[in-house]
Specification:
This protein has 3 domains: 1-72; 77-155, Ubiquitin-like (UB roll), CATH 3.10.20; 158-237, Photosystem II 12 kDa extrinsic protein (DNA polymerase, domain 1, Orthogonal Bundle), CATH 1.10.150.320. The protein is built from 9 helices and 7 strands, in the order αβββαββααααβαααβ. It is mainly alpha-helical and 238 residues long. It has helices at residues 2-69, 100-106, 136-142, 145-148, 157-160, 173-176, 186-189, 197-209, 226-232, and strands at residues 77-84, 90-95, 98-99, 124-125, 129-133, 179-180, 236-237. The strands form 3 sheets. The protein has a 3-stranded mixed sheet, covered by helices on one side. The chain has a two-stranded antiparallel sheet with strand order 3-4. Strands 6-7 form a two-stranded parallel sheet.
């Protein structure tokens, strides 16, 4: 009987030990599972944060690229000192790309004795410059060449006289081979040295607003400077 009780105690001890071990293992597994879940959760958060930061950086980069590729254009101003035979000589601010006539109007217009017929009123002003308007007497006394050969805003006598006739015989432009820049088609303009399709279109657009009064006026067209003008001046007329 006593022996039987001892066996029962041993069984209880063994069962208790097994239970304690099982509880210990279960507790460790539970902690291990929570740790894994926390690690996985942290990884997910880091991944989400990384994606969010990446998206924000990409959006910022796209915005920067768009801004850089589409710069805003602001028209500048230039200072023009206009004096001589005008009513209110002085320094005037005007938009870059304006013309001499704009400056003349700011200065109160020409005086009665101004030699305005010698001035290229549609000369485009792109930088700061000085403009002197001579009187008729000054032109007569000093001669046109002393003015026209030194001032870029003067109409050249040679260019102004290049009408669509041969001065020696009155030959029409078609026969003389000259291109009338006021009436020529795009194809005809493109036969001139250095004049491509875009420049020909620019010439046509310009003359629709402001007909050419001299061949020199063609330098007011975007893309045609003095160098290109010198290449075509003997082949054009108005």
């Amino acid at each position: 009987m006593k022996h039987k009780k001892q066996i029962n105690k041993n069984i209880v001890y063994v069962a208790a030990f097994v239970l304690i071990v099982a509880m210990s293992v279960g507790y460790k597994l539970l902690l291990s599972g929570q740790s894994t879940m926390l690690i996985q959760k942290d990884d997910a958060n880091e991944s989400l944060q990384s994606e969010t930061i990446g998206d924000e950086a990409a959006a910022l980069s796209e915005g920067t690229d768009e801004t850089a590729s589409e710069p805003e254009y602001t028209a500048g101003t230039v200072s023009v000192y206009i004096c001589g035979a005008v009513n209110s000589p002085g320094v005037y601010e005007m938009d870059s790309g304006g013309i001499i006539n704009d400056a003349v109007e700011m200065a109160g217009g020409f005086r009665e004795d101004a030699a305005d017929e010698y001035i290229d009123l549609v000369y485009v002003v792109r930088t700061n410059m000085s403009v002197y308007i001579p009187t008729v007497n000054e032109i007569e006394e000093e001669g046109y060449d002393s003015w026209g050969n030194s001032e870029i805003y003067f109409r050249s006598q040679e260019d102004g006289a290049t009408e669509c006739e041969d001065p020696s015989g009155g030959t029409p432009a078609e026969e003389s081979g000259l291109i009338n820049i006021n009436t020529a088609t795009r194809e005809q303009l493109m036969t001139l040295p250095g004049i491509g399709e875009a420049t020909a279109d620019a010439i046509i657009s310009y003359r629709e607003e402001t007909p050419f009064t001299s061949t020199q006026d063609i330098m007011n067209v975007s893309g045609i400077g003095e160098s290109k003008y010198n290449r075509i001046r003997e082949q054009i007329c108005v």
